[in-house]
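Issue 218. Parser rejects a valid record. Input:
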Amino acid sequence: MTIGRLLHRIGLQALHLQIASLGSIVLCIALWLRAKTVDQEERGNAERRALFVGLWPPMFWLIGESVRQNEDRSLLRGPRA
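Output the parser choked on:
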């Protein structure tokens, strides 16, 4: 069983993951802006945190695409009897 199928079965929709993807972009930008306001000693760690969060959007988006494909498949099959 794939992750997309599992997430679809528990009720997660592609839209939820796409919103999480866009939210993580906003979070990355917020962390990066905050990194500019901290002391020089802490700035490296704060920038690394922002970069780490910046890796999340494509992951969430691609998992959302996998869930969307499962949504499309279930629509093609129709309701189960």
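Fixed in the parser; the record now loads. Helices lie at 3-9, 14-35, 40-54, 56-77.
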